[in-house]
Amino acid sequence: MTDHLPERLDLLATADAGRVLHGRMKLASLPRLLPALSSTDGELAVSLQLGKDPDGTRYLRGTIQGEVRLECQRCLEPLVMALDLGFCLGIVRDQASMDALHERYEPVLAGAEPASIADIVTDEVLLALPLVPAHADRRECHEFVRDYLPPEPEERKGPFAVLAELKQKQ
Ligand SMILES: [Zn+2]
Questions:
Q1: Taking the complete model, does pTM exceed 0.85, yes or no?
Q2: CA–CA dist 154, 50 (Å, integer)
Q3: 24, 115, 136, 166: most buried, per Cβ within 10 A?
């Protein structure tokens, strides 16, 4: 076990040897992630376990924890999103081994070059980010926008309620 992460890792050889790696990665060191963030401050705690399961599949299991700051698309104010991700990748070297991979694994291709840990972490975080980030509760949104929003849909009367009212008036 080590308390730092190497920049690159030979996935197949490391899975054959069996290893657990822990470390922290600065958000600023993940350039593909940065366009999605409203702040580059902060870091992620990353834990990786590589090994071979009983049927011989080499795997990379991991967790990513931390916080990222996004921009709420409703009020354009910062929005803190807590990340607590778990992933399970099957390490493959070609299309045939990708096709044979058990469905519990997402494939990760081991190319000729050692894999970049930053790339793997970036892909997992990007998958977890919402397409359109917004405060979960619109009362958290910036005041100006909140005051000019239409009422919540559940506060509006459905068409059947309106119809019933009309019938009563007749
Ligand atoms: Zn908002």
A1: no
A2: 48
A3: 115
Ligand 1 centroid vs 6 CA: distance in angstroms?
37
Pairing between strand 58-71 and 8-9? Answer: unpaired
Residue 3 tokens, joined: 């308390």
**Ligand 1 center–CA 78 separation, angstroms:** 8
CB 29 within 8 A of CB 133: no
How many C-beta atoms surround the C-beta of residue 47 within 10 A? 15
Residue 129 CA to ligand 1 center (angstroms) comes to 16
How far is the C-alpha of 106 from the C-alpha of 21, rounded, in Å? 20
Reading phi first (left if > 0) and then psi (alpha if -120 to 50, else beta), residue 7 is in alpha
Q: What is the DSSP letter of 56?
A: S
Per-residue pLDDT of the chain (170 residues; tens, 9 = 90+): 445 799 999 999 999 999 999 999 999 999 999 999 999 999 999 999 999 999 999 999 999 999 999 999 999 999 999 999 999 999 999 999 999 999 999 999 998 899 999 999 999 999 999 999 999 888 888 876 666 666 666 555 566 666 666 666 66
| Centre of ligand 1 from the C-alpha of residue 72, in Å | 5
